[in-house]
Amino acid sequence: MTFFHRIPGVGLTLINMELNKDIINYRKETFGGLIINLKTGKIFKLNKTGYKVFLVLYKGIKSKEELIRKLQNDFKGNRNQIKTDVKTFIKKLVENGFFIRK
Fold it and tell me: Cα-flanking dihedrals φ and ψ of residue 58, to 5°?
């Protein structure tokens, strides 16, 4: 997946970056799901919405716009709020080593 904007506070552009599937394990739970960074051992608890966004990212998406469109259809939310929430979520994934350069 490729993103074409800067993530504030991270200092990089997510162009030519993708989820590092080699270090990720995940599982669905009643509250949403868990994602585990196998390299660091950190476990992240996600609510149902966060887990859904993670799965969309994990399964692959071609562009930020495609992701926003899919989430907007799935959650019937405000486009600007979805964009803000996705940026925040991806920033956390980047900060915690889930993305790598292609």
Answer: -65, -40
